[in-house]
C-alpha cells in the first residue's frame, strides 16, 4: 500500500516536478511552481487532474481562464491545451494525477528548464504498458 499525507508531501517538495508513484493506469506527481513561474503551455494525450495545496495562480484550459488557490481542483481532459501560472508571491504547490502515466517513473525535475530539456531529449517517457 502507498500512503501519503499528500498536502504535507507536496508542501515539502522543493522541485518543479517529482513523480511519487506510477501505476499501470495512473501516476501521482507533486509540483512546485515558483513565483512568476508557469508549467508552460502544453497538450497531453492523457487526462490530468490537478489539486492545489497552497499559493495562488491562474488556470488556462482551452482558452478559458480561472483563478486557482488552495483546495481548488482542475480537470484537463486529454487533448486540451493548458497552462498554469503562479500569480502570487509564494510558490504555487499542487499535486496532479495523470491517467495513464505521463512521465518517467521516479522522475525528479528540479526546474522547469530541466524538465523541458529532459522531455526534448526523450528522457522523460512514461513506462511502456
From TrEMBL:
<feature type="domain" description="Cupin type-2">
    <location>
        <begin position="30"/>
        <end position="98"/>
    </location>
</feature>
<dbReference type="InterPro" id="IPR014710">
    <property type="entry name" value="RmlC-like_jellyroll"/>
</dbReference>
<protein>
    <recommendedName>
        <fullName>Cupin type-2 domain-containing protein</fullName>
    </recommendedName>
</protein>
<feature type="region of interest" description="Disordered">
    <location>
        <begin position="103"/>
        <end position="129"/>
    </location>
</feature>
<dbReference type="Pfam" id="PF07883">
    <property type="entry name" value="Cupin_2"/>
</dbReference>
<dbReference type="InterPro" id="IPR011051">
    <property type="entry name" value="RmlC_Cupin_sf"/>
</dbReference>
<dbReference type="InterPro" id="IPR013096">
    <property type="entry name" value="Cupin_2"/>
</dbReference>
<dbReference type="InterPro" id="IPR052538">
    <property type="entry name" value="Flavonoid_dioxygenase-like"/>
</dbReference>
Amino acid at each position: 500500500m502507498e500512503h501519503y499525507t499528500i498536502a504535507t508531501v507536496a508542501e515539502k517538495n522543493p522541485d518543479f516536478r517529482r513523480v511519487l508513484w506510477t501505476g499501470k493506469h495512473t501516476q501521482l506527481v507533486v509540483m512546485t511552481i515558483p513565483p512568476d513561474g508557469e508549467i508552460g503551455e502544453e497538450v497531453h494525450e492523457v487526462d490530468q487532474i490537478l489539486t492545489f495545496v497552497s499559493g495562488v495562480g491562474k488556470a488556462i484550459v482551452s482558452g478559458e481562464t480561472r483563478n486557482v488557490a488552495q483546495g481548488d481542483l482542475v480537470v484537463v481532459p486529454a487533448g486540451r491545451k493548458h497552462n498554469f501560472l503562479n500569480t502570487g508571491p509564494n510558490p504555487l504547490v499542487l499535486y496532479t494525477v495523470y491517467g495513464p502515466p505521463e512521465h518517467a517513473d521516479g522522475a525528479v525535475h528540479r526546474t522547469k528548464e530541466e524538465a523541458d530539456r529532459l522531455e526534448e531529449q526523450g528522457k522523460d517517457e512514461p513506462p511502456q504498458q
